[in-house]
């Protein structure tokens, strides 16, 4: 029996103040979870019957206590992740400029504001440097990412055409 491809979301709350653009990222503090100890966007797996937008809103609130409306999420990327030759996960990425509440540490994530020119790539998944700067500059991304088993080492990547209506 083959395993189903995991569908996930990533949300990037952004505060713009001229050239001082900040993005809210989080350090994964839940041990035993993918990305433990690394810094990345807020998100996680879609639950049964849930759309990517619904999952993005739910995960953002669970991991940061920020609340967002569906219409405030700007779909901006799709990451197709392979382990070897097998597609194992698809992540739908969203920018967010408007939300309610203040970020708080949770059992999952410890939030931190980072200037977009000072992203901590040394503490992020290896592929992040290929796509996060583009998202933070307002562009869309659509990539295939090939990793060795267990997401240990990025082996290759390729760009795909971006479909802005893919998750709606």
Write the topology of this structure.
Elements (H helix, E strand, L loop, with lengths): L5 E10 L6 E7 L10 E2 L11 H13 L8 E11 L2 E11 L12 E7 L12 H9 L4 E7 L6 E6 L9
Parallel strand pairs: 1-5, 4-7
Antiparallel strand pairs: 1-2, 2-3, 2-6, 4-5, 7-8
Structure in a nutshell:
This protein is mainly beta and 168 residues long.
Helix content: 10-25%
The rounded Rg comes to 15 Å
Level-2 CATH architecture: Alpha-Beta Complex
**Could you give the distance between the termini?**
30 Å
What can you tell me about this protein's structure?
The protein has 168 residues and is mainly beta. The protein has one domain: Nucleoside Triphosphate Pyrophosphohydrolase. Helices cover 13% and strands 36% of the residues. Strands 1, 2, 3, 4, 5, 6, 7 and 8 form an eight-stranded mixed sheet that branches. A hairpin with a 2-residue loop joins strand 4 and strand 5. It is globular, with a radius of gyration of 15 Å. The mean pLDDT is 92.
Key structural traits:
168 residues, mainly beta, Nucleoside Triphosphate Pyrophosphohydrolase, eight-stranded mixed sheet, 13% helix, 36% strand, globular
